[in-house]
Write a structure and sequence with these properties.
Layout: E1 2-3, E2 7-12, H1 30-35, E3 41-43, E4 52-59, H2 61-72, E5 77-85, E6 95-99, E7 102-104, E8 112-114, E9 123-134, E10 137-146, H3 153-160, H4 174-177, E11 185-193, E12 200-204
Parallel strand pairs: 4-11
Antiparallel strand pairs: 1-2, 2-4, 3-4, 5-10, 5-11, 6-9, 7-8, 9-10, 11-12
């Protein structure tokens, strides 16, 4: 955890909610744990429960507004590491773009889906880091850079192009979900300008897989 007078950067473990869910059994979360020591800490953005990695919290309402504005105006660059099923690209360094509109799949909530009629624009850049053999399967280690921040965007985008993420209980077929003990998606890096000091921040937490 990194802390200054204005913000807190922490490494969220996979399986922990960012904010409380509905029900007593979903009360344990990042925000409640941090607020036990820093009552003024407020969530700025979220990660899926199954996703690990960098999460920012603001110390006070004014900082929450400033950081939220930076995210909304795409002044925060986000970089994830993921492992996807199959052989995406031709060689390490290959890159591409996924631009598919997303919308909530209301009958199957919390799932999202690609919908070219009612979906909101969603854009993801990807780059191949290498190729792995996982549980006897070919898999591609990726750097994922979402431009937009739709719910489950990276998971849905990769599944839509035929490369679901390993360990994804929502969007991967059973054999791909079972190929890893957790969702192999990690928020590894955030770069932004500190709203108060103006310093360039380059926050990194290496992927644990």
């Amino acid at each position: 955890m990194a802390i200054d007078d204005h913000l807190i950067a922490l490494d969220k473990p996979a399986g922990l909610l960012a904010v409380p869910g509905r029900g007593v059994d979903k009360a344990d979360c990042v925000s409640s744990r941090v607020q036990a020591s820093y009552p003024e800490a407020l969530i700025v953005h979220r990660l899926d429960q199954a996703t690990s990695g960098l999460l920012l919290m603001a110390r006070g309402l004014a900082m929450q507004r400033a950081l939220s504005r930076a995210f909304e105006q795409r002044e925060v660059n986000k970089c994830y590491v993921a492992v996807a099923a199959g052989h995406l690209g031709k060689a390490p360094g290959d890159s591409g773009v996924i631009e598919l509109p997303l919308v909530a799949d209301w009958p199957r909530r919390p799932l999202q889906k690609v919908d070219h009629n009612t979906g909101k624009p969603a854009l993801t850049h990807w780059r191949v880091l290498g190729y792995d053999g996982v549980a006897g399967r070919v898999a591609t280690r990726l750097e994922l850079m979402p431009v937009t921040g739709r719910t489950h965007q990276l998971r849905v985008h990769l599944a839509a192009i035929g490369h679901p993420l390993l360990g994804d209980a929502l969007y991967a077929p059973p054999e791909v979900c079972g190929a890893a003990p957790r969702l192999l998606l990690h928020a590894e890096r955030l770069t932004l300008v500190h709203p108060v000091s103006g310093a360039a921040l380059d926050l990194r937490v290496p992927a644990p897989f």
